[in-house]
Specification:
Layout lengths: L17 H11 L3 E3 L6 E3 L1 H20 L3 E2 L5 E3 H4 L3 H7 L4 E6 L2 E9 L4 H11 L8 E10 L13 E11 L2 H22 L5 E4 L11 E8 L5 E11 L9 E3 L5 E3 L1 E8 L1 H10 L16 E5 L5 H14 L5 E3 L7 H10 L4 E5 L1 H5 L2 E6 L5 E5 L3 H26 L1 E3 L3 H10 L3 E6 L3 H11 L2 E6 L18 E6 L3
Parallel strand pairs: 3-7, 15-16, 15-17, 20-21
Antiparallel strand pairs: 1-2, 4-6, 5-6, 7-8, 8-14, 9-10, 9-22, 10-11, 11-14, 12-13, 17-18, 18-19, 21-23, 22-23
Helix pairs in contact: 2-6
């Protein structure tokens, strides 16, 4: 592949300014655009189509474990939000309030949902009577608003799209099992569909969700070595059921509080795809979530035979693949090639007069730039094979980046040196003291990403204080 820095002049070079490179791709590839309200964005059809594909796969996985979708109100009364103390303290700085209805000032402010634990909980208190009503495994696809100070399209916007699952259970074990089951579903979605490897583990007390007993996470690493939290699943225990009085009659005829969970992924995943896979030519989309898996580009539009053959190819392929044909007559072929590479389409199919004579077409792989000569009779099977190969290669490339950017250290000086020399994950032992966690953040800008389920023993001592270590932790700077 030609790696000339100026190949796509509209995009800042990825190594020169990663942040600007990211923004350039969001705009130039037609994923989203800025609007007149600071911190908000308009998701354009191409970007929304990626989200729809993620939704589709997620819904399929959710329904396998009995998830039912519903929809709850956008606005939450202030007194409802205040019922769970830790929860409101965690979200208070980001809450947006509605104070007027038309010209009339409201007696009680209404919160635009930053998340819906409180609304779900108050409804569960009405809907549940006995153990026979349990479990309730509900989810909603919606938008939320959080008044972030610093914003970036998809990664941290003031309004974003997500799904939020909220479940109630008869026993603690059932709720805990569901919490981890949803985390594993997120892992499958992100690794199989987005082609991004993840770390699974538990968040520290400092980093857990406000109001949760335990927060579990799937963490991803971007091209520049910064971490991105891709999804979380929370075990609430009875932290919400008690203040919201969510009781049920148990099998012994006694009243008991339910056990709850919450879990979510968002349009942040689109940002993850951009930053994990993109390059100086633009987007690089995994075939499973690409809105267009293959684009057919007739070489000469003035040649009726070429156009007819391209249209015939399109009709055949669109039955099994997300495929389009580019018959724009106001652009040169070279521009079209660059344009579709910018948009990250996995396969470009070129066909011209000489190809028709030879009963063939040319596949060009977006990830490698390789050209493959394909007989027209074999196009369907070869396209399936090529897309599968691209999906696997993209995952493998991303995994290699994660492995190359993961270091192990046993003292703070090495921690600082390694994260500054080659930004990425740092594996280090931790005593569990929040003061040591805070010191790492102060000195390196890195936070604890997760306490992985699969523990290793690098040393017996905490990387900061030297006292007896409790956990191996993955640390990293974050988006």
């Amino acid at each position: 592949m030609n790696n000339n820095k100026n190949y796509v002049k509209e995009i800042t070079n990825i190594e020169d300014d990663f942040a600007q490179w990211y923004t350039d791709i969001v705009i130039k590839a037609g994923l989203a655009d800025y609007v007149d309200i600071k911190g908000f964005m308009a998701i354009r059809p191409y970007g929304f189509a990626i989200w729809e594909n993620i939704q589709k796969y997620a819904n399929e996985e959710f329904k396998k474990v009995g998830v039912k979708n519903l929809y709850l109100p956008l606005l939450i009364p202030e007194d409802l939000l205040n019922k769970e103390k830790d929860h409101i303290e965690g979200f208070a700085p980001e809450v947006a309030w509605v104070t007027h209805g038309g010209n009339q000032e409201l007696e009680n402010r209404l919160c635009i949902r930053p998340t819906s634990e409180t609304m779900f909980s108050t409804l569960y208190a009405k809907w549940i009577e006995s153990w026979r009503d349990l479990p309730m495994i509900y989810n909603q696809w919606c938008s939320v608003v959080r008044w972030e100070k610093e914003t970036k399209p998809f990664l941290r916007s003031r309004e974003f799209l997500w799904q939020e699952g909220h479940t109630v259970h008869e026993t603690a074990k059932e709720a805990q099992d569901l919490t981890l089951k949803m985390l594993n579903i997120y892992k499958r979605i992100i690794e199989r569909e987005l082609a991004i490897p993840v770390l699974q583990g538990e968040k520290s007390v400092t980093e857990k969700f406000a109001g949760a007993e335990n927060t579990y996470t799937v963490e991803t690493l971007m091209h520049d070595g910064k971490a991105l939290q891709a999804g979380t699943s929370h075990y609430f225990g009875q932290n919400f059921s008690k203040p919201f009085d969510i009781k049920f009659m148990n099998r012994n005829g006694k009243e008991e509080y339910v056990y709850q969970t919450s879990w979510g992924i968002s349009t942040r995943l689109i940002g993850a795809v951009i930053m994990a896979h993109g390059d100086n030519r633009g987007l690089k989309l995994p075939p499973k979530i690409a809105p267009i898996q293959a684009i057919i580009v007739p070489i000469i539009l003035s040649d009726n035979t070429v156009v007819e053959k391209a249209e015939k190819l399109f009709k055949i392929l669109k039955k099994k693949f997300r495929v389009e044909i580019d018959q724009r007559d106001n652009y040169q072929v070279g521009y079209k090639y660059n344009d579709w590479e910018m948009k990250g389409v996995p396969v470009r199919i070129e066909i011209g007069p000489r190809d028709i004579i030879n009963n063939q077409c040319i596949f060009v792989e977006r990830d490698t730039g390789n050209k493959i000569v394909v007989k027209l009779d074999d196009v369907e099977s070869k396209l399936k094979e090529t897309l599968n190969n691209i999906q696997k290669r993209m995952f493998d490339d991303c995994k290699k980046n994660m492995e190359d950017r993961t270091s192990s250290v046993d003292n703070l000086d090495d921690f600082i040196e390694k994260i500054n020399k080659k930004q990425g994950y740092i594996k280090a032992m931790w005593c569990g003291d929040e003061k040591c966690e805070a010191e790492i953040k102060d000195k390196t800008g890195a936070k604890s990403r997760c306490i992985p389920f699969k523990q290793e023993k690098i040393s017996d001592k905490c990387v900061v204080c030297g006292k007896k270590a409790k956990h191996l932790v993955f640390w990293g700077r974050q988006y």
